Amino acid sequence: MTVKSLRWRSDGLTRLNTAVLLSLLIHAIALSVLFFSPAFPTRTWTFGPAYSVDLVSAPGSLGRSATATLSREVMNAALKESARDNAIVLKKSIVTKTPTPLLKQDAPTKKQDAARLNQAIDEMRKKADAADAGGQPFSGQGNTASLMSQYYSQIWSKVRQNWALPQSILADKNLEAVLDVRVLRNGQVTHISFEKRSGNSFFDQSAYRAIKKSDPLPPLPAWIQDSSVELGIRFRSADYRR
Amino acid sequence: MRKNHIVLFFVCILWFVTAVPVAYGKVYINIDSPSAQKFPIAITPFKNMNNAGSQESLSPWFADTLGKTLEITGFFNILDRKAFLVDQTKLGISTENIQFPAWTGIGAESLVTGGFTVSGRDLTLECRLFDVVQGKLIVGKRYTGKIEERKEMVVRFAQEILVALTGEKGLFDTKIAFAGKKSGSSEIHYVNFDGTEPVKLTNFRTITLSPKWSPDGKQISFLSYKDGAPDLFVMDLNRRTARKILSNGRLNLPATWSSDSRRMLVTSSKDGSEEIYILSLSDGRMTRLTSDPSIDVSPTWSSDGKQIAFVSDRGGTPQIYLMDSSGAGVRRLTFEGGYNTTPAWHPRSNRIAYEGRAGGTFQVMVMETEGGTPVQLTTNGRSENPVWSPDGRYIAFVSRLGGKSRVCVMNSNGTNVRVIHEGLDSYVSPTWSPHLNFY
What we know:
Largest sheet of chain B: 6 strands, mixed
Number of domains of chain B: 2
Structural class of chain A: alpha+beta
Largest sheet of chain A: 3 strands, antiparallel
Number of helices of chain A: 7
Strand content of chain B: 35-45%
Distance between the termini of chain B: 82 Å
Largest interface: A-B, 68 and 60 residues
Oligomer: heterodimer
CATH architecture of the largest domain in chain B: 6 Propeller
Number of domains of chain A: 3
Low-confidence stretches of chain B: 17-24
């Protein structure tokens, strides 16, 4: 015991180091507590692509289960619902005042954006799950999610609306194409490129056309501070192919 | 050691803290299915190039015929001409004259313009397909011939459009044969993919069943009682002559041909119960594949010829089983529904369409050969005997609804159901020809 403490005391430099290390350690712990605080869902901390907006697709074919049809209906309702919620939130700005000044003071960062987005996604997932389970889909819907979900839902909805591809022409493979898109503040699309091609040129072309036809996309909302954003739009056939 | 641990912990924390912001760059939006199942396409009236006054009616005829032809495929949404914002026949039909935004503005992805010149009985037709979203010409063709050949010209340009937008020329040069029963006798008939030109192939005035079109397109095999027993015949479609290839006094049902049209799978009860054999057409030799005392019928080869799907009641109820092409390695595929028959192997993938019991009736199902959940494609009435088109994008089947039997074709996802033959008492066993290249 003493030997140990002696060794620690014997070297002034080590003591200094220790102090510095301890200080950094405390900072690190404080930081990690901040990061892992319950306000941020753990889903955020991935090192792959930042975050994905995974909305429930509307199945179009006849050969779908009743559950799928239900989830489509519910999902459409969900999108409408969230849009309506936002309208209400805007009107009720006084009621929801508490979070608003906080946001202004803190100036929303990308981190917060991400966290809120994930909350939004989680809520949409929950809704979808609830819908699939046949339960009550909208109980206790929060407002925080709406801003995020609304913007990305708008993009999702517009691009999907413009995506035309007959199911029967797809081969027996699950295709995925990822297109990289840069969107200006006014919604104008300035750049479209393939981050990943599917290997089926007809599938890729249909995805490219869908984005082209969706230009201009909805203008960037106020909570995005950059003058333009880069989006990845991932087109997939797994749910669709028959 | 302990110090090392502290440093290591730190490095981890620092790495974590610095690495996380990198991950914030980009949002990914996943879209798992298109909202539109069809390509939106605009077809302008064709331009009368030499203003032959008597041929004015051809201008909408070309556009309408091309529109109807494309519509049959189930891949196109033909935009209503009333919605058009510009008149390309006045502006011009070649690339430099196309007002692309006026076409994207009404939701089109593609545009077809055309022009024709008539002099005497001679017709020159030029057609162009544009990608209006990217503002470019995709394919342009000029056809010359007689005015009577105009339908053929239109179908050939429809094939060009299909190749350009889907990678396959479509099935306009294919036919579908089937057995049709009327007043006690059953004969083989066939009809074009679009339901035109029905032909009664046999006239034996007896029971003739189970036609199977050979992959070379030149022959159809079938079972017929024309000589008193259920014998197996092959008909040469050019000469219209039927040759008896299997006769033993027992039931002999033809099934799938091999891809080289030299062998076929048959079901025969020549050794007692119904068993599956490979019949060599050159020497009539039969190789037995199944040897279970139960009934084994309806064999179908996989696209690569290495596997066979068939129906057996060895488990108590008729179910679909798979085996190697040698007859070894039998395994059961279907477990749901209690009654699953008439399997058809997809020509390009490992999917099987079959007729399965669902909700008290029979419907067309599709299932992966690795197993999994069957997908029910049809819902109305009773749907039987599915067969795939040569490109695997369509299924022909027999529909029974409201006391009537019909031969129908649908897209492989169950949409776009069309009747291609009706009017007889009942239908069974459709079979799809390969490309016969008559367009």
